[in-house]
Amino acid sequence: MQKMNADDLAVIRRFQSGDRTAYDDLVRRYIRRAYRFAFRLTRNREEAADVVSVSLLRVLKALDGFKGDSSFATWLFRIETNCYLDMKKRIATRAIPKLEDVSPIGDLQSDAVYIDSSDGPMEESEKSERLTILHNAIARLPENQRIVLYMYHGESMSYEEIAESLDLPIGTVKSRLNRARISLRSHLRPHFRIFEESLILTPLTS
């Protein structure tokens, strides 16, 4: 279990003591990270914004009861994951095309961490191509594997944090992550030349 950040806890205690402006402080701290995680799950800017909006509303309603047994980030990702899965159920019942049918490329700016702006046009084009192929390969994974993959590699969460966020045994988290890596390598095998020296592939095969 990740130790509760002292600064986060202080802000939360302010909120629980009646200072409602403390909620705004939390939002400012986590809004970018919350959106990044939601976008990785949805690969759609509007859906990611919806997930974040609903998640933050749930946080506001539940914050008075937050005890600090886990880190705020772990708690937030748990709420976001549930909101995302709830949204998927609503989409399915309305017979709207599944998320996997939506282009997994999305807004590459959200993955700018992988792009070095000092590169020339050719290098950036190659990196964009790798991202496109990678997103398509990840989109082919089962949803429960994708979520674990994004939590571990995208958000640098530990096995324990993921297990706590998803309410799963650590063994299940490790198993899903391992299966995701194996499947991802299989999907990327036809593009091995492109990923042979890619920094993107390195953390996904560790």
Commentary on this structure:
This protein has 206 residues and is mainly alpha-helical. It is built from nine helices and no strands. The longest helix has 22 residues, at 21-42. The relative contact order is 0.11.
- If you compute it from the alpha carbons, what radius of gyration comes out, rounded to the nearest whole angstrom? 18 Å
Mean pLDDT figure: 80
Count the domains.
2
Q: Mind describing the biggest β-sheet? A: none
Report how far the terminal alpha carbons are from each other.
22 Å
Total helical elements: 9
Give the name of the CATH architecture of the largest domain: Orthogonal Bundle
Keywords, separated by commas or semicolons:
206 residues, mainly alpha, Arc Repressor Mutant, subunit A, 2 domains
What's this, in brief?
With 206 residues, the chain is mostly helical.
Annotate the secondary structure layout.
Elements: H1 6-16, H2 21-42, H3 45-62, H4 72-93, H5 121-139, H6 143-154, H7 159-166, H8 170-188, H9 192-195
